[in-house]
Amino acid sequence: MRISSNLNPYLLIAPGLLVTGIIILWPLVQLGQLSVSEVNRFGQVIGQGGAENYVKVFADPELYASSFRTLIWTLGVVLGTLLLALPISLALNEEFYGRGVARVLVMLPWAISLAMLAIVGRWALNGDSGTLNNLLQMLEITQTDIAWLARAETAFPMQILLGIVATLPFTVTIFLGGLSSIPTDIYEAAQVEGANKLQTFRRITLPLMRPFVNIAVVLNTIYVFNSFPIIWATTQGGPANSTDILVTYLYKLAFRFGRVGEAAVLSLIMFVILLIFTIIYVRLAMNEEN
Amino acid sequence: MSKLMKSLLIWLFLLPIFAITLFPFYVMATTAIRPQTEVFDQSWLPTRFAWENFVEMWTAVGFGRALANSLYISTLATALTLIIAIPAGYALSRYRFAGRTGFRRFLLISQMLSPIVLVLGLFRVLVLLNALNDAHVVALLYAGFNTAFAVWMLESYFSTIPRDLEMASWMEGASGFTTARKVFLPLAMPAICVTALFTFVNSWNEFVLALTLLRSEENYTLPIQILAIVSGRFSVDWHLVMAAALCATLPVAILFAWMQRYMLRGLTAGAVK
């Protein structure tokens, strides 16, 4: 006889399913309807639109410009984070004095909300004696104030840097988890066999870290691709849409430019892209499990 | 190589990294304590510490009301998330049922969907329901978006709690509900607290939904309030803004420093199962 309680698992998951389901599905239905409607500047549906919104979105040069920037933004933040996070995690995984403190110092940016980080960035990168300008001049690296956020050529790299700062702690956490899962006797065996540090790193650490790197890359890609606050709170995609990525452009279409129908189409496109990312992620995660 | 030598080398390597990770805190702290006249000065230290900034910003930034709003919405969101996620986490860790995998997949998708993709749709739904600019609705939405993570985290902890005690309680004739409440919940309390803290911090920091769905200043949460002060003004009192940013961030930073070791479980639990 199997002893079990009389609680029904379906009743237990019902609230979660219901709340999350409604919060996702109802807006999706709305977006679907909007995307095939004619919507005026004030967001009122005034008729059938057919494929018109779709045609407009794909004919819009800003879509391609901001898609390209989204690619640069995502690649820049994800790869930049990866390059920094690997050596940092390896260092933090060693036994050394003050390791606990060092870990906390690396993790701290996690505690700042993205919006707050962007507001701090807005001040630090200010063209009139912002903190970075003052620091650079006090250290005698530059002589004059640079308006970092006034031009895309300087603003966008700085935004990517802010993105890296914000993504680093999460990635290091995942890597540290991965490193701690590698059994130490493998290293001892390698040492007995006479392998040097570089060989052990290439032949043992890297291959065993692969699944964690994969998961971090896919998760970061999803988060960064979606990330709105950093760019919005520093430049709002400006000047003149020159730092817009897809999410900020979508937001402007919907809530600034009054092009609601097109914004709905773009939302749906992004939903599909995210779904594809998610499927890749599930595949990777399942591979690791087997 | 001695441990001391090795420690020195590692710290030397990490120093430039700390320069980057601590830079935001450096900016906030050094600007927040400067007297107004010295905000733009090129000096390492101000001539005096302007503690009055923290008093001034309270009214100048509208900190008090925004703080109350943030506290209210985050607390409500946390409570709602727990009410939803504890039973679901319990079900996933204790029962094998048809649709279990489907439910997990659904949670995963809901986790991957950032609010930004849905925000226009949500806005339309709330217009239909006449529920824009309502703190309670925003809290409910936060609960929905936090559910997946909370369920994974709770499930991974719940699975480590042995079932023997519950079985004993069932055999004594206690109902499933009584057992869950009297035997299981006390054991699960640490996990529930950690999950609650996470949800709270997530809600505290949330940006795009608050920005879009809270339409009037009396409902603004802290990030929205501070952004409103910064944007669309000709001159910004940065010393006050940074004092406010510091006050909004420090409590969370301290919580985080303490919680960070618990984070990995929830983050990877959803991932690998």
Order of helices and strands of chain A: HEEHHHHHHHHHHH
**Category from helices, strands and their pairing of chain B:** mainly alpha
The secondary structure category of chain A is mainly alpha
Main β-sheet of chain B, in a few words? none
Helix proportion range of chain B = over 70%
Q: What overall form of chain B do the CA principal axes indicate?
A: globular
Distance between the termini of chain A: 32 Å
- How do the strands line up in the largest sheet of chain A? 1-2
Strand proportion of chain A, as a percent range, falls in under 5%
Kindly provide the radius of gyration of chain A, computed on alpha-carbon positions and rounded to a whole number of angstroms: 24 Å
Number of helices of chain A: 12
CATH topology grouping of the domain at 60-258 in chain A: MetI-like fold
Secondary structure topology:
The complex is a heterodimer of chains A (290) and B (273).
Chain A: H1 9-35, E1 37-39, E2 45-48, H2 52-59, H3 61-93, H4 99-107, H5 114-124, H6 131-138, H7 152-180, H8 184-192, H9 197-225, H10 229-235, H11 246-255, H12 260-289
Antiparallel strand pairs in A: 1-2
Chain B: H1 3-32, H2 52-60, H3 63-94, H4 100-112, H5 115-128, H6 135-158, H7 164-171, H8 176-205, H9 208-213, H10 222-230, H11 238-272
What does this structure look like?
Chain A: One of its GO terms (biological process) is transmembrane transport. The complex is a heterodimer of chains A (about 290) and B (about 270). Chain A is mainly alpha-helical and about 290 residues long. Chain A has helices at about 10-35, 50-60, 60-95, 100-105, 115-125, 130-140, 150-180, 185-190, 195-225, 230-235, 245-255, 260-290; strands spanning about 35-40, 45-50. Chain A contains 12 helices and 2 strands, in the order αββααααααααααα. A two-stranded antiparallel ribbon of chain A has the order 1-2. In chain A, a hairpin with a 5-residue loop joins β1 and β2. Chain A starts with 8 loop residues before the first helix and ends with a helix. The model of chain A has no long low-confidence stretch (mean pLDDT about 90). With about 270 residues, chain B is mostly helical. Chain B has one domain: MetI-like (MetI-like fold, Orthogonal Bundle), CATH 1.10.3720.10. In chain B, about 75% of the residues lie in helices and about 0% in strands. Chain B contains 11 helices and no strands. Chain B has helices spanning about 5-30, 50-60, 65-95, 100-110, 115-130, 135-160, 165-170, 175-205, 210-215, 220-230, 240-270. The interface between A and B is large, with 105 and 112 residues.
